Every structure is written in C-alpha cells, then in structure tokens.
Amino acid sequence: MRKTRLFILMLTLLGVVAASAQIKGTNIQVMVTPDHQDWNYEVGQTAVFKVSVLRSSTLLNNVTVDYEAGPEMYPEVKKNTVVLKDGTMTWKGKMTKPGFYRLKVTAHVNGKDYDGACTAAFSPEKLQPTTIEPKDFDAFWGKTLEEARWTSLMPQRELLADRSNEDVNVYQVSFQNIRWGSRTYGILSVPAKPGKYPALLRVPGAGVRPYSGDTYTAPTQAIILEIGIHGVDVTQPQTFYDNLMNGALNCYWNFGMDNRDDSYYKRVVVGCVRAVDYIATLPEWDGKTLGVTGASQGGFLSYATAALDSRITFVAAVHPALCDHTASLKGIACGWPHYFYWNKGKNMEKQIETSRYYDGVNFVRRIKCPTWVSFGYNDDVVPPTTAYATYNTLTCPKVLSIYQQTAHFWYQEQWDEWQAWMKKELGVTNK
Which SS3 state, helix, strand or coil, does residue 410 take? Predict the structure, then answer.
C-alpha cells in the first residue's frame, strides 16, 4: 500500500511539472546586429549589419536564407535562396536623407521559416511628417464635441463582485457617447477606501475584445477606467467579440473614410473625450490628476484625447498608430492602417482629405502636458519613421524611450518603465 501511494504521488508531481512547463522561444534564431550599439547613424554614414543563423546558440552551416534591404516598407534589394556556408553574412546600407533602413532575413530550416531583422535609424531626430493640417481642424473637433455634449452622459454602473476585493471595487460602466443611445462601455476600478484619488484612462489598441480592467497599476491609490470603443458590453465571452471582428466590425478602421463625419473614428475619439467627462463626475476623483495611456491604436487615441481635453495632465503612448497617413504618397513609410500604401492614393482624394482629421500628427501639435513615448525600430506594423516624425512634432515636455529590437510588442523592461513613469505622474508609490 505504501509503495502504491508513493507511486501515485510521483505521478501527481510529474503531472504538475508537465502542466507547468512552458514552450518558450525557438531553437533556431536569426540574429541581425548593427555595428552601432544604439542602432543610430547620421545621414551619409554606412551601417554594417552582421547576420548569424544559430541553432542551439551556435552557427548553422549551409543554411538557406532570403533577405530584403532598404528603407522600411520600400526595400530596394530582394534576394532568395542564398546559401550561407558558415551561417553568417554581412550587409552594408546607407541613406541620403533621414529615415530608417531595414535588413530582414528569413532562414529556411527543416521546412520552417525563421525571421530576423535590424532597422537602423539615420538622423531620426530630423524626421518631419508629411500630413497637412486642415484649416478648420480645431473648428471641426470643437463643434463635434459641443454637439456630442448636448446628449447627457446618463451613466450606468454595475459592480463586478468576482473582480472586486477588499482593496478595489470593480464595475462595468457605460455612458452615452456622440448621440442618444450610442454608448461607450468600460471597466472602472476604484479604491475601496474612501478618499480622493488621481485617475488614469486606458484606451485600447485595434481589435474587438473583452476587458478585465486595471487592478494592477495602483489598486489602492488611483481610479482607472479602461474603455472599449465599439459600443458593446465588454464582459462577454471571447467568441462574442470574435464574431463581431469577423463580421460586422471586420476592418472597421476603413469605415466611412470618404467623409470626415462618417469616419468610424469620429465616434471613437468622441467616446474617449466623453470618458474624461465621465471620470470628472466621479466623487472619488481628486479633480487634479488625470492621465491617458494606450498602445498602437491606443497610442493615437491617447494623443487625440490629450489634444482635445485640457484636463488631461499626462500622456503615455506606446508604438502609436494612425500617424502620418499620407507619407506613402511620397514613398515614405506610413502609419497603420497604411491607408494609401497599396495603391499610392489613386482615386482616393476624399479619403486623403478625411485622413487629415484623424491623423495623430495633427493632434500632437495641440498637446501641452508631459508626454512619454516608446516604440521599437523593428516595428513593421507601426513604422518607426511615423512614430519618430510624430514625436518630433510634439512641443510639450516629452520623454522618448526607444527599445530598438522590439517589433509590435513589448519587452518586460519597456512595460516596467512605462508603468513606473505613469505612477510617478499619478503621484503614487510603487507598492
């Protein structure tokens, strides 16, 4: 009997180990490294890239690769089925004007593809955006918000007991947006202890998804509202949102782009500002500190919210999308969703005009509060060309934090820095 129990215990422990084991990374790696540690060069300099294809951290001989090189989104050289006898190659690239030069390598090993890239910056501090600012930009948005506020917020709040605890109360909330019956939904986290608190508005990246709320940044020290943008409940099962994304909301970012009043983002931007209106009604808010943050699409929405509402006291934007849409009309990398990249804007005059009212560049010109911006040079969704040109346009107190190797994702250190900066601006401790 004792041996049987011991055997069962061993099987149980093995099951726990197996269940806790994680798949992490790949054994094959394609490393592309520049000869400048900061990946930065002056216009006219030559960047030297070293490519190493590794298996178990050692060079892989006779490996076949494809590669392309040139300004991001506009490679000038493409080579296929090149054999690297010792698993290495060297490439040189340069630019004659400010921008980003990318070498992308794909290794083919045992029927699978493995990618690596390096994007060198050439005088990025000199990059300037291409978009034109409409003369009536302020008038358009001023009138839009004025008309939206004719509709009262009529807020609703429902306690989510399973997400609340002794430190924080968590609610699903909603309030009216741009017109009667058009509502914005979100998750509100409020410290349980009575008092006055700073606030943070979290705005979302692209997609359709549920939200759990932010109970980790400062659960006992700040009010945090995380909103969705699509006017639907944000606590449904994932399949609910998958069906929307694959159906009625498929490619929603293209909706209404032939008219500034029909653009999907008109309601979205207004909803972000009305979220500020909602936070301002909360008796727990201290009436002083109110930040906004988001990544990708959320980076753009952070810019827009701060530009349109002076109650915002700080901005934290990560790889911000929807910036400098018209860059591709000049053969320069453009911001997601790359509206005019594929057809060079042919027969899209109305869409080009509309895009200027929904371009992050034209919003950042109006931001006055401290702003923290972070992105990676290897991002192929939100090109660093657009992120850097938009950052250069900011005239407010600003901080730029580059994590060169990141693509459209976060490193842990980047996340930690972002959180720490926002906590400092909120005036809360790091406990």
Answer: coil
pLDDT score of 6? 47
- Taking alpha carbons only, the member of 179, 202, 177 closest to residue 189 is 202
346 vs 33, higher pLDDT: 33
Strands (E), 13-87: 28-34, 40-41, 46-55, 58-59, 63-71, 77-84
What the block records as the tokens of 361 is 């560049």
Tokens of 102: 């990318």
> What pTM does this model have?
0.93
The answer, yes or no, to whether residue 19 has pLDDT greater than 60, is no
State the DSSP code for 133: P
CA atoms within 13 A on the CB side of 235: 16
pLDDT of the residue at 431: 59
The crossing angle, in degrees rounded to 10, of helices 137-148 and 264-281 is 60
Q: What is the DSSP string of 346-406?
A: TT-HHHHHHHGGG-HHHHHTT--S-EEEEE-TT-SSS-HHHHHHHHHH--SSEEEEE-TT-
pLDDT tens-digit series, residues 330-374: 999 999 999 999 988 899 999 999 999 999 999 999 999 999 999
Task: Give the angle subtended at the CA of 215 by the CAs of 210 and 220, to the nearest 5°.
Answer: 155
Annotated catalytic residues are: 296, 379, 408
CA pair distance 320, 384, nearest whole angstrom: 9
- Nearest one of 241, 319, 304, 310 to 272, comparing CA atoms: 304
Q: Tell me which residue has tokens 């010109």.
A: 365
In whole angstroms, give the CA distance from residue 98 to residue 168.
48
Euclidean distance between CA atoms 111 and 353, whole angstroms? 46
Radius of gyration of the chain (CA): 24
Classify 255 as helix, strand or coil. Answer: coil
Using DSSP's 3-state secondary structure scheme, residue 138 falls into: helix
CA distance 280 to 352: 35
- Mean pLDDT across the stretch 390-415? 96
Task: DSSP for 7-24, please give it.
Answer: HHHHHHHHHHHHHH----
228 C-beta neighbours (distance < 10 Å), count? 24
Would the pLDDT of 75 be above 70?
yes
Read off the pLDDT of each residue in 97-111 and give the average, rounded to a whole number: 97
* Region 242-269 average pLDDT: 97
DSSP 166: S
Strands 40-41 and 112-122: parallel
Looking at every residue in the chain, the average pLDDT score rounds to 94
Contact present, 219 and 187 (Cβ < 8 Å): no
